Sequence to fold (129 residues):
Amino acid sequence: MKKALPILLLVLYTLTFTACTHSAKDPDLQTVEAKTEISNDEISKKTIVDRHGDEMEIITNNTKNTVTVRLNGKSYELHKNFENAGFSTSDNKYQFNETKNEVTFLKKDADMVLFHGKKDQASTKMASQ
Fold:
């Protein structure tokens, strides 16, 4: 048993140094650098809760005149509608209107309001004296 321990250590020692002879850098592999785009867009994010407790996240890109609405696990990309106030999808099925105090998201062909909520009054209300 006493002779087995030094032999085992000698075997582990030789395996360690012979196994590590490979170069750390493989000449066949090339480093690929991913280019990241830096966006100079003016983007704002808001989360609005309606009276039922449903949340809608609104991501506004003022540079591209687009709004992304996330509601119930779905995401809707809306573009500025220059004919009427608000934003609508490219197929004109959904419409998003935002006023000073309220936000409305509706499905136009069914005349159904999907979300209607009020903005936080504390942040928009002016101090009265």
